[in-house]
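Expect chain and fold; thus:
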Amino acid sequence: MSLDRAYLREHPRQVPLLITHQRIRSVRVAGGDLCTAERLTLDDGTNFFAKSLAGADPGLFTSEARGLAWLAEAPGGPPVPGVVAATQELLLLDWVQPGEPTTASAQELGRSLARMHAAGAGGFGAPWPGFLGRLPVDNTPVPEWPAFYAARVAPLVRAAVDDGHLCAVDAGAVEAVLGRLDGVAGPSEPPSRLHGDLWSGNVHHADDGRAWLVDPSAHGGHRETDLAMLRLFGAPHLDHVLGAYAEQGPPADGATERVPLHQLFPLLVHAVLFGGGYGAMAGDAARACP
């Protein structure tokens, strides 16, 4: 067998067998907080990025693959790696050689994000299962964003409380915000094409001078959610990213005040996955909502 992309896309279950029988060198690389991430190199020098997770949910990697392909369809959007094949326990992507972030790449990231968001979506949600890391999240399509957001956040509140990662006071603050979402969500906007997990670790600055998007939880959502996630943990040259975004696609009035609202979801995901102080941070964000 040879590593033919067309064949592998049609027969993804052959990927583990192929890797076993090819003469391949593997090196662990960044990108494996929950999964094992490796650079696979064939004897002819071809490199691939492989992400694997034993016992993964059957939809995890196929959903990520569909999300990458969907984001790649956005005219003028950020580049994403090509999907070679996806199985239940492994995702194989084209290798993108890492580089360093620059102000120019940050500005182009901002502009291309605005174009990706403007490409839109068929609704709030997606026709594939949702995941943040290994955690399933609700992608059920909903006509309006407030109802979609509430359906995603409410189960996380319950899970975080049950796991002891969110106290009753903070849970009450989040639930109070969910109860008045229609009044704090800002002007109604059509669904945007979102990355869905846009923290700095999922922005891959490449040696071609561009910022690539990786590891999405892609869905139709509110564009402010992507931008709020990017703000949450910071990113290189973030002011340049946000400034260029605003020039390409100015946010609605009050977007800055709504950042805590859109950060509730990722904070609660982190509370469920990692515990620590994320539950308290979610409570603080809820109390900072308009």
Remarks:
- The first strand starts at residue 24 and ends at 28.
- The first helix runs from residue 5 to 10.
